[in-house]
Amino acid sequence: MAILGPALSQCRSFVVDVKYSTSLPFLSRYLRGSAEHLRILKLQCDVDDAEDVELPSIPEQHAVKFPLLSIAVFDGVTFLDACHIESFTEQFKSLSLSTLSISNLSVPEDEEVDLYTLCGHCQFGFIRHLILRNINAGYDPGTIDSGQYEPKVNCVTLIGHDLVFTEEFLLATYGSTFCYWHVGGSGLSECSVPRPTTSDWRT
Predict the structure, then answer these.
(1) Rounded to whole angstroms, how far apart are CA atoms 74 and 89?
(2) Domain residue spans in the chain?
(3) Which of 101, 121, 191, 198 could crosslink 131 through cysteines, CB 3.0-4.6 Å?
(4) 10 Å Cβ neighbour count for 83?
């Protein structure tokens, strides 16, 4: 990354695909300035082994721009790292993404991040397809107000979560109108509540 980092701002597509999440680069360390050509950013891993990782501190003057970003894949703790960059999260609010995928997420011990914090971070301008896979974040069932988070999302995929996590996510985002739901490995049944508003449901 010492070699590739400076080139990142000139790339249209930047993909890292490794086995362990500890091999993934932190954007806060390597992305600087304007990445005005960047359309695809994928930081992918097969196994999350970064439970004890410490996210780097980010200088206040750190700023990045990525006006054309369309596809973003964050594995391990890379999404939380990106959310620590203030200029990154400010752009999230107006950005329209084709796909946002967050997978194999575990939260470092010194980070206070749960399901509801994650929902708050997903308040983008628009996301055509939101994918959450194997999210290891805490939650307190039944304590959230229904519909507290209403992300502007067209399609949602939830994979690898237990029944309570999935139902709590449905509760937190209740009121959002999704065109397509794909839920796998959650144990949802016809008695699960609340039922999302959607035109297409797949399990």
Answers:
(1) 14
(2) 27-46+63-202
(3) 101
(4) 19
Q: Are strands 13-20 and 177-178 parallel, antiparallel or unpaired?
A: unpaired
Whether the pLDDT of residue 103 is over 70: the answer is yes
CA–CA gap between residue 146 and residue 168 (Å, rounded): 9
Distance CA 135, CA 145 (A): 21
pLDDT tier, 50 (very low <50, low <70, confident <90, very high otherwise): confident
- pLDDT tens readout for residues 122-178: 878 889 999 999 988 888 887 776 667 777 888 889 898 888 888 888 888 876 777
List Cβ neighbours of 137 (8 Å cut-off, separation of 6 or more): 105, 107, 113, 114, 115, 117, 118
